[in-house]
């Protein structure tokens, strides 16, 4: 009675996925899903590059969840999971240039163009509240109609 490594990993990371999907963020798990959603997202889109690391759990995901309680939020909410949905994450990162791959990270796009980006180094040494404040400032700046 052995469990495959793949099944084990899926079971282990599901709560990390749930942290974002339970607040209304849609997972993009394939490059095709990224292509169907990101370039054509009219208005604003938040894209969270999720990760298994401690700063994703302690700062990134809680900060995003707190920011989404703000009065002004993006029109679309997406996430990709680095290290798990590798091809989808690679495709999403094409839209975050010139920033190098970073996970976790948070992108805000407007009409398909990157307008705000929070890299890992801006997450790992800040609190969830500071990340939420950074995001809500960006929401106020880019998401108001």
Automatic annotation (TrEMBL):
Upper taxonomic lineage: Bacteria, Bacillati, Bacillota, Bacilli, Bacillales
Name the record gives this protein: Putative YphP/YqiW family bacilliredoxin
Family: Belongs to the bacilliredoxin family.
Pfam family, one: Disulph_isomer
Signal peptide location: none
């Amino acid at each position: 009675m052995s469990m495959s490594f793949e099944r084990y990993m899926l079971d282990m990371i599901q709560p990390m996925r749930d942290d974002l999907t339970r607040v209304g963020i849609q997972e993009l798990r394939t490059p095709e899903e990224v292509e169907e959603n990101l370039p054509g997202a009219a208005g604003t889109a938040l894209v969270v590059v999720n990760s298994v690391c401690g700063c994703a759990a302690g700062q990134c995901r809680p900060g995003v969840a707190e920011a989404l309680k703000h009065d002004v939020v993006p029109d679309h909410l997406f996430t990709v999971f680095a290290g798990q949905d590798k091809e989808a994450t690679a495709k999403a990162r094409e839209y975050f240039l010139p920033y190098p791959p970073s996970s976790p990270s948070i992108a805000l796009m407007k009409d398909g163009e990157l307008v705000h980006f929070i890299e890992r180094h801006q997450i790992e040494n800040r609190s969830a509240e500071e990340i939420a404040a950074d995001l809500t400032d960006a929401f106020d700046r880019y998401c108001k109609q």
